[in-house]
Amino acid sequence: MHALNKNRPLRRVMLASAATVSGIVMLLALKPHTSPTVVTGSVAPAPSSSASAAPGATGGTGSGSSDSGKSGKSAKSGSSGTGTRTVTGDTVQTRWGPVQVRVTIKNGKITDVTAVQYPQDNPRDQQINSYALPQLRSEALAAQSAKIDTVSGATYTSGGYQQSLQSALDSAGL
User: Fold this and answer.
1) Do residues 129 and 157 make contact, with C-beta atoms less than 8 angstroms apart?
2) Which DSSP helix (H) or strand (E) runs through 69?
3) Which of 3, 70, 112, 173 is least buried, going by the fewest C-beta atoms within 10 A?
Protein backbone atom coordinates (compact mmCIF):
# COMPACT_ATOMS: atom_id res chain seq x y z
CA MET A 1 0.00 0.00 0.00
CA HIS A 2 1.04 3.56 -0.66
CA ALA A 3 1.96 5.86 2.30
CA LEU A 4 -0.55 8.51 1.25
CA ASN A 5 -3.46 6.15 0.86
CA LYS A 6 -6.81 7.90 0.41
CA ASN A 7 -8.33 5.67 3.04
CA ARG A 8 -6.13 7.30 5.67
CA PRO A 9 -6.54 11.09 5.43
CA LEU A 10 -5.10 11.66 8.92
CA ARG A 11 -1.77 10.26 7.75
CA ARG A 12 -1.66 12.80 4.89
CA VAL A 13 -2.47 15.66 7.24
CA MET A 14 0.30 14.57 9.64
CA LEU A 15 2.88 14.28 6.83
CA ALA A 16 1.92 17.68 5.39
CA SER A 17 2.12 19.27 8.85
CA ALA A 18 5.50 17.68 9.56
CA ALA A 19 6.86 18.90 6.21
CA THR A 20 5.59 22.44 6.86
CA VAL A 21 7.07 22.56 10.35
CA SER A 22 10.40 21.20 9.04
CA GLY A 23 10.50 23.87 6.35
CA ILE A 24 9.77 26.68 8.81
CA VAL A 25 12.43 25.43 11.23
CA MET A 26 15.00 25.28 8.44
CA LEU A 27 14.05 28.79 7.28
CA LEU A 28 14.34 30.24 10.79
CA ALA A 29 17.69 28.52 11.34
CA LEU A 30 19.14 30.27 8.27
CA LYS A 31 21.67 32.85 9.43
CA PRO A 32 22.45 35.75 7.08
CA HIS A 33 26.12 36.48 6.52
CA THR A 34 27.71 39.48 8.14
CA SER A 35 28.91 42.27 5.92
CA PRO A 36 32.68 42.35 5.41
CA THR A 37 34.78 45.14 6.85
CA VAL A 38 35.44 47.96 4.45
CA VAL A 39 38.98 49.06 3.66
CA THR A 40 39.19 52.60 2.33
CA GLY A 41 42.92 53.26 2.30
CA SER A 42 43.38 54.16 -1.37
CA VAL A 43 40.40 56.49 -1.86
CA ALA A 44 40.33 60.04 -0.54
CA PRO A 45 37.32 60.82 1.68
CA ALA A 46 34.89 63.52 0.70
CA PRO A 47 36.00 66.88 2.08
CA SER A 48 33.74 68.30 4.76
CA SER A 49 34.22 71.91 3.68
CA SER A 50 33.00 71.40 0.11
CA ALA A 51 29.57 72.35 -1.11
CA SER A 52 26.84 69.84 -0.58
CA ALA A 53 24.85 68.10 -3.30
CA ALA A 54 23.02 70.15 -5.86
CA PRO A 55 19.61 71.52 -4.80
CA GLY A 56 17.47 69.71 -7.44
CA ALA A 57 18.90 66.25 -6.90
CA THR A 58 16.42 63.45 -6.90
CA GLY A 59 16.52 60.43 -4.66
CA GLY A 60 15.92 57.59 -7.08
CA THR A 61 12.54 58.30 -8.59
CA GLY A 62 12.25 58.36 -12.31
CA SER A 63 12.53 56.10 -15.30
CA GLY A 64 15.60 54.16 -14.16
CA SER A 65 18.19 56.15 -16.06
CA SER A 66 21.68 55.73 -14.68
CA ASP A 67 22.38 59.46 -14.71
CA SER A 68 20.17 61.93 -12.91
CA GLY A 69 22.08 65.01 -14.01
CA LYS A 70 25.19 66.93 -13.12
CA SER A 71 25.95 70.03 -11.20
CA GLY A 72 28.87 71.94 -9.76
CA LYS A 73 31.81 73.66 -11.37
CA SER A 74 35.22 72.30 -12.13
CA ALA A 75 38.24 73.89 -10.53
CA LYS A 76 41.76 74.19 -11.88
CA SER A 77 44.97 74.56 -9.99
CA GLY A 78 48.56 74.52 -11.09
CA SER A 79 50.09 76.10 -14.15
CA SER A 80 48.91 75.81 -17.70
CA GLY A 81 51.18 74.30 -20.31
CA THR A 82 53.36 71.26 -19.83
CA GLY A 83 53.71 71.28 -16.02
CA THR A 84 51.67 69.44 -13.44
CA ARG A 85 48.02 70.46 -13.13
CA THR A 86 45.24 69.26 -10.88
CA VAL A 87 41.71 69.60 -12.20
CA THR A 88 38.52 68.76 -10.34
CA GLY A 89 35.59 67.59 -12.42
CA ASP A 90 31.93 68.46 -12.07
CA THR A 91 29.92 66.91 -9.25
CA VAL A 92 27.61 64.37 -10.88
CA GLN A 93 24.40 63.51 -9.05
CA THR A 94 23.71 59.77 -9.29
CA ARG A 95 20.86 57.74 -7.87
CA TRP A 96 22.90 56.89 -4.76
CA GLY A 97 24.69 60.19 -4.22
CA PRO A 98 27.18 62.65 -5.70
CA VAL A 99 30.36 61.56 -7.50
CA GLN A 100 33.26 63.93 -8.17
CA VAL A 101 36.75 63.19 -9.47
CA ARG A 102 40.06 65.09 -9.25
CA VAL A 103 42.66 64.46 -11.95
CA THR A 104 46.37 65.22 -11.83
CA ILE A 105 47.95 65.77 -15.24
CA LYS A 106 51.68 65.99 -15.89
CA ASN A 107 53.03 66.78 -19.37
CA GLY A 108 49.67 65.93 -20.96
CA LYS A 109 49.34 62.52 -19.25
CA ILE A 110 46.99 61.52 -16.47
CA THR A 111 49.19 60.63 -13.50
CA ASP A 112 46.59 60.38 -10.73
CA VAL A 113 42.83 60.16 -10.35
CA THR A 114 41.16 60.63 -6.98
CA ALA A 115 37.50 60.34 -6.06
CA VAL A 116 36.70 63.51 -4.11
CA GLN A 117 33.03 62.72 -3.51
CA TYR A 118 31.29 59.37 -3.77
CA PRO A 119 28.31 57.63 -2.15
CA GLN A 120 29.23 56.49 1.37
CA ASP A 121 26.04 56.95 3.38
CA ASN A 122 25.51 53.30 4.28
CA PRO A 123 27.60 50.13 4.63
CA ARG A 124 26.47 48.85 1.23
CA ASP A 125 27.74 52.02 -0.49
CA GLN A 126 31.04 51.69 1.35
CA GLN A 127 31.35 48.03 0.37
CA ILE A 128 30.64 48.71 -3.30
CA ASN A 129 32.97 51.70 -3.51
CA SER A 130 35.80 49.95 -1.68
CA TYR A 131 36.27 47.71 -4.72
CA ALA A 132 34.81 49.91 -7.49
CA LEU A 133 36.80 53.12 -7.01
CA PRO A 134 40.28 51.53 -7.12
CA GLN A 135 39.22 49.61 -10.23
CA LEU A 136 37.87 52.75 -11.91
CA ARG A 137 41.06 54.63 -10.99
CA SER A 138 43.35 51.98 -12.49
CA GLU A 139 41.26 51.81 -15.66
CA ALA A 140 41.34 55.59 -16.06
CA LEU A 141 45.12 55.64 -15.62
CA ALA A 142 45.53 52.81 -18.14
CA ALA A 143 43.12 54.28 -20.72
CA GLN A 144 44.34 57.89 -20.27
CA SER A 145 40.76 58.97 -20.96
CA ALA A 146 37.24 58.75 -19.56
CA LYS A 147 36.41 55.85 -21.88
CA ILE A 148 36.55 53.18 -19.19
CA ASP A 149 34.45 50.10 -18.46
CA THR A 150 31.62 50.15 -15.96
CA VAL A 151 32.31 48.15 -12.81
CA SER A 152 29.77 45.40 -12.32
CA GLY A 153 27.65 46.11 -9.26
CA ALA A 154 28.57 49.81 -9.27
CA THR A 155 26.77 50.99 -12.38
CA TYR A 156 25.62 54.36 -11.05
CA THR A 157 28.94 55.19 -9.41
CA SER A 158 30.79 54.17 -12.59
CA GLY A 159 28.61 56.42 -14.73
CA GLY A 160 29.10 59.38 -12.41
CA TYR A 161 32.85 58.69 -12.24
CA GLN A 162 33.08 58.67 -16.05
CA GLN A 163 31.11 61.91 -16.40
CA SER A 164 33.10 63.74 -13.75
CA LEU A 165 36.36 62.45 -15.21
CA GLN A 166 35.34 63.62 -18.67
CA SER A 167 34.43 67.08 -17.37
CA ALA A 168 37.83 67.33 -15.63
CA LEU A 169 39.62 66.26 -18.81
CA ASP A 170 37.57 68.75 -20.84
CA SER A 171 38.53 71.53 -18.39
CA ALA A 172 42.17 70.52 -18.71
CA GLY A 173 41.95 70.61 -22.49
CA LEU A 174 42.65 66.91 -23.05
Assistant:
1) yes
2) strand 69-71
3) 3
Greater model confidence, 32 or 165: 165
Contact yes or no for 145/167 (Cβ under 8 A): no
**DSSP secondary structure string, 71-131?**
E---EEEE-SSSSEEEEE--EEEETTEEEEEEEEEETTEEEEEEEEE---SSHHHHHHHHH
Q: What is the pTM of this model?
A: 0.54
CB 115 within 8 A of CB 133: yes
Rounded Cα distance, 121 and 125, in Å: 6
pLDDT for 66 beyond 80: no
Sign of CA dihedral 18, 20, 23, 27: negative
